[in-house]
Design goal:
15 helices, 2 domains, Peroxisomal Thiolase, Chain A, domain 1, alpha/beta, two-stranded antiparallel ribbon
Length: 385
């Protein structure tokens, strides 16, 4: 019989561009210890572990094996999941299913990355098909720029609209002690920063980060005994829609649209703009904050710029997005989607401190990567029916 699942503890490192003081095991352990302390659990209470990172980046495989001194996984069932940029959200969904299936009562989920020890652009480029894609694909920035250009051409958006998203998230990051970049910027500063690939400026995109995140999932049999206010998982969805870059519908995120429709249907959400209270969006560049909320159904096609300019997604607005500062402020890639999950859980549990949105009943978190892939989770204060 399927069981309902809740998040009962979260932990993450204080993310930085470079952590030469720790190796991968030690970095992972920082997040694990904080998650266990948050849930008031010991490692002996954990039944199984799910772990993931972009091992293609660091060039070190079998993290499930070599990390056990950091993860605490000695003599415990461990599974590694790696799905590109969506890895962090994928490991969370994997943990959810292991608990929901009834196999385990308490599962520790871990995402991590040491980007300072990797070649991100080289790894992304060589991950693509060597005949059809690799010769014309120069890493993540170029693909995102093509998406932004298509959206601008279709709806008349401008680079100022994208910059407004960056200004929002970087301001929100000021309230998050875990964020790597904690400095407000102005529209003029974003637009004056170096052009990477038109229309994307340096301050439109995320940094490279060393960091880790851990989340503890628990079954309904034990969740409320561990945590007085668990974060209940209402629904998940996964869409890895494309194999080749040329298959994508540039200017729209098909995987976000299809995944959101599935997830909201599962949970009975009919008006996400009114029923969601906060969104933690895996948004590695500013224009994603425009395009993807349209695909979620928060606003209609072409309506995102005005919605954001009106302050609706700022703290205190109708639907705050990325109170944590989001991916633009912190991006340890294998952990990034799990950080979104953890931040959404903290909002539901009322533990987000200076970045807390009042009275959160439903929160949304997502992962993004690959050929415009999207994973997503719906978090809720009440136990699902």
């Amino acid at each position: 019989m399927a069981k309902r699942v809740a998040i009962v503890g979260t932990g993450q490192t204080f993310h930085k561009s470079h952590r030469p003081d720790v190796n991968g095991q030690e970095l992972i352990n920082e997040a694990v210890v904080r998650a266990l302390n948050d849930a008031n659990l010991k490692m002996k209470d954990i039944d199984a572990i799910v772990i993931g990172n972009m091992d293609h980046f660091e060039g070190i495989n079998y993290v499930d094996c070599w990390s056990v001194d950091g993860s605490g996984g000695t003599m415990k069932p461990i599974i590694k999941l790696t799905t590109g940029g969506t890895t962090g959200c994928t490991v969370a969904i994997g943990g959810y299913h292991l608990v929901g299936s009834g196999m385990f009562d308490r599962v520790l989920v871990i995402g991590w990355e040491k980007n300072s020890e990797s070649d991100t652009t080289g790894a992304i480029t060589t991950a693509f098909d060597p005949i059809w894609d690799r010769l014309v694909f120069a890493g993540a920035i170029s693909g995102l720029a093509a998406e932004a250009q298509a959206y601008m051409a279709r709806y008349g958006a401008t680079d100022r609209d994208g910059a407004r998203v960056s200004v929002r998230d970087r301001k929100h990051a000021m309230n998050n002690p875990h964020a790597q970049l904690r400095k407000e910027v102005t529209l003029e500063e974003v637009l004056a920063s170096p052009m990477l690939a038109d229309p994307i400026h340096l301050l439109d995109v995320c940094p490279r980060t060393d960091g880790a995140c851990a989340v503890i999932m628990a079954s309904e049999d034990v969740a409320e005994k561990i945590c007085p206010k668990p974060d209940w998982i209402w629904a998940t969805a996964v869409r890895h829609s494309y194999s080749y870059l040329g298959d994508a519908d540039y200017g729209r995120l098909t995987s976000m649209r299809e995944g959101s429709q599935e997830m909201f249907k599962k949970a009975g959400i009919k008006e996400p703009r009114k029923e969601l209270d906060v969104i933690e969006l895996y948004q590695p560049y500013s224009f994603g904050g425009l395009i993807w909320i349209e695909d979620m159904g928060i606003v209609g096609p072409g309506e995102a710029p005005q919605y954001i300019w009106d302050g609706n997604t700022d703290m205190g607005g109708e639907l705050p997005i990325n109170p944590s500062g989001g991916v633009i402020s912190c991006n340890p890639i294998g952990a990034t989607g799990l950080i979104r999950c953890a931040e959404a859980a903290m909002q539901v549990m009322g533990k987000a401190e200076g970045r807390q949105v009042p009275d959160v009943n439903f929160a949304f978190s997502s992962g993004f990567g690959g050929c415009w892939w999207t994973d997503m989770i719906l978090h809720g204060k009440k136990k699902p029916k």
